[in-house]
Amino acid sequence: MIDNPDQVERLLVKLQQALPLPARMTPRLIATLRARAPLSHPHQSCQVKSVSYAGDEGGIVCHFEPEDGSSEVVVVSITHLDFDPHLPLAREIAAYQKHRLKRLRRLGP
Fold it and tell me: Would you say the pTM of this structure is higher than 0.70?
């Protein structure tokens, strides 16, 4: 098991109450979006509109529309986003991201 179910449940409730959440896409996510649509120029910033849980394999996922004018909704793991450290939930988000990435690395490819 990758995620701690209790931690996920508590964090999901808090995230849903705090929506919309400002976030920044990681460089890797921006590169992936550009590879899918070469003519698009996704901005680094985005607004997370909703969150859900994609099971132990997918973890907590965030839904947002890129601020490049497209109407496409992007759904990505919360580990592909950076959040302002001054947000009230920043520590809890970072702890979840760190725990999840550590467990994924331990499982290997």
Answer: yes
